[in-house]
Request: fold
Amino acid sequence: MVENKDVDTRLNRITPLQQIIASSTGALLTSLIVTPLDVIKIRLQAQVQPFTKGKCFVYCNGLMDHLCVCDNGNSKVWYKAPGRLKGTTDAFVQIVRNEGLKSLWGGLPPTLVMAVPATAIYFTCYDQLRDIFTKTFCIDASSAALIAGAVARFGSVTVISPLELIRTKMQFRPQTYKALLQYIHGDIAKDGWRSLWKGWGPTVLRDVPFSAIYWYNYEHGKNWLCQTYNRVEPSVTISFAAGAASGAVAAVITLPFDVVKTRRQVEVGEYEVFSSSSKRSASTWRAMNTIIAERGLAGLFAGLSPRLIKVVPACAIMISTYEFGKSFFRELNREEEPKTF
Reply:
């Protein structure tokens, strides 16, 4: 019995490299599908509240944020002031007609440089940690999913944070690598190594709870759907539905931290580029209190609809592609098993 169980476990296992390939494919596909939605959303927002010199907006490709700064209505990177758009469909048609199809994926390349590796590390670490918690420490599956999701996201955010800071500085103020290194060295000399992790706090407060809630609900939803439809492994449809539902729940619960993170990103962006005299939020909690004082409790849940429109399909596409990739590699490994043993 023990030997048969070991064989089944081995046949269902995939290598870390295969997990990385599956998650990278999911990250790329998610970005390609979700990015046009955010480009259209930004264009529609801009004509209601036109961007002016020094004004920042946050663009997201479904995997990570990308802060852009406008100069006289135009971003220095890719964004152009739009003409009059009547709605989502009209925006799609006008952008393609006037600027070409590739404009729907404006701003995607610089973000993908970090988004795909970060997502691959995150998903691979989650699977590895979940297996360790369940098999080595005998933690139940639900608790293991929650803990592994939180730890994996915490590690991913911590590793990527300095790179995100460097990318943001280069985007705001074009400069040589030598000048950039001198600027960073000056920050380190003044504030220490922790200066490389500016903005890490609100990002962790948003992403770590999101990840824990997401994976906990996803594993529950996936298992329930598999039992309901009598399946051993989740189909693409099951993964898609469970991912969408769990992503929606996590997005609503963690929205206040996302509002704070976006506000602080914009404040830091305007301060860095245009030397704004406005003071930046001293802490996440103080920023929350400021928002509540200005807009009431509802201010912490501003932008719920746009966040759900981005997060739900991004989570659904990412996890269903990842699960499909893992199933593909499991089947491939099973076919090769007799040749190896």
User: Anything to note?
Assistant: The beta strands are 55-60, 65-71, 74-75.
